[in-house]
User: Fold this.
Amino acid sequence: MTGAARNILVVAHAHRTETVDAARRVIAVLHEAGATPVVPTDDPALLEALGEVPAVALGETIAPADIELTIVLGGDGTILRAAELVRGAAVPILGINMGHVGFLAEIEADVLDDAIRRVIARDYEVEERMTLRVRVKDDAGEVLYETWALNEATVEKAERERMLEVIVAIDGRPLSTFGCDGMVVATPTGSTAYGFSAGGPVIWPTVEAIEVVPLSAHALFARPLVVAPEAPVVVEVLGRTGGRAILWCDGRRSHDVPPGGRVVVRRSAEPVRLARLHPSPFSERLVRKFRLPVAGWRGPVAEDAE
Assistant:
């Protein structure tokens, strides 16, 4: 790629002063280094907040496929939005956490300058994260809506006063029927998000699996499940209780699920690529993000590795 144009997409949370200021700094440094900073055009609030900067607009002269890397300043929600922008282009995403927990982010804001230097030097590794393909079908099997998810797809009740009655099927076989507030179907990446809050287990990102977590289920057997990634997960909404359902993917994209309709979730062939400056064991990130107590550990011993 020597001599080729280097287009770096910069995505930031538009309503936080610190993220906008950091985005301006990133854009300025990239420009000085001879790269082309690119900003999204679908976020007028960010464009207004940035003001006059030496950047070009995504989609006008530069397509997502022409992007070398995406730098995201914000929390996990901003990273999920950036993943939408470059979906289909296999562009690595470097998350710089300026939110709260920030599980998807690689680094914290206090090492921003070093991060930009390493981006310019192409000094990073890329890891792939499994995603989900999600379809909504009506009772005749016609596809009404299709989308994807990095964290999770949730089927939720649309009315507070009514519960949903669902049939859950795995691998083309019915597993159980019960009333509930909804169902979470998550990737390992999403297991530390909604699935974790709903009582599901944490799954290491390197594990290839799909997590299924019922929400407030009225049933004896309605425990979280971890299933093979090749196993399609189907949540069928029964119409006899009159409850209406809605599908949410990553909390960003939604679609109504009709009575008798099905939400079919399976592994997507297209992963999300995350740039890593400091590859480390997931356990280390888990301890740091959740501030888990580890005092008293004496360090590894030789037999631990055997």
About this structure: DSSP finds six helices and 20 strands in the chain. The chain has two domains: 7-130+271-290, 132-267. The longest strand covers residues 173-180. The chain has a mean pLDDT of 91.
